[in-house]
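Whiteboard transcription, Tuesday session. T.W. wrote the structure tokens on the left side:
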């Protein structure tokens, strides 16, 4: 498995991975209506190619199959961070996160932060993040609980 930066041709697989993960993994922690609002039937509700290209988007590439991805913004925000349902528990998220943290260190970013789902909260805690607060957010008319989390990096 290779961790690399996003290529434009990854956009379709990433859109599908996001949709399937929310619908089939996050359903454990959210209602059907919530996951439909979060990952609508139109998987192109977001311009994946444009947004992923504008950020440091790392993908886990398993011989052409994208096993996961994570997006780092220049301000230290980790936006989308998802692993394919068939790769859960295999260290994919840890490898993607490691690449993000390395890039943040290179860029002189001292604080990483994210809004983690109920499903992702334990992963980010294992990566050394702290919970700032539980919050309620709205997407397409549905309300969700997620967690504002942060981690301060020590420059090497």
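and on the right, the sequence the group agreed on:
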């Amino acid at each position: 498995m290779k961790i690399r930066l996003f290529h434009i041709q990854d956009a379709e697989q990433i859109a599908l991975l996001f949709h399937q993960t929310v619908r089939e993994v996050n359903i454990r922690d959210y209602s059907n209506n919530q996951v439909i609002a979060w990952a609508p039937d139109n998987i192109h509700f977001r311009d994946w190619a444009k947004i992923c290209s504008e950020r440091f988007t790392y993908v886990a590439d398993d011989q052409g199959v994208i096993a996961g991805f994570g997006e780092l913004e220049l301000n230290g925000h980790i936006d989308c961070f998802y692993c394919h349902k068939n790769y859960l528990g295999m260290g994919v998220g840890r490898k993607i996160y490691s690449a993000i943290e390395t890039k943040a260190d290179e860029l002189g970013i001292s604080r990483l932060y994210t809004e983690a789902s109920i499903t992702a909260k334990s992963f980010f805690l294992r990566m050394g993040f702290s919970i700032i607060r539980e919050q309620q957010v709205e997407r397409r008319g549905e309300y969700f609980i997620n967690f504002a989390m942060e981690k301060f990096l020590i420059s090497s």
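Someone added at the bottom: Residues 15 and 110 are 30 Å apart (CA to CA).
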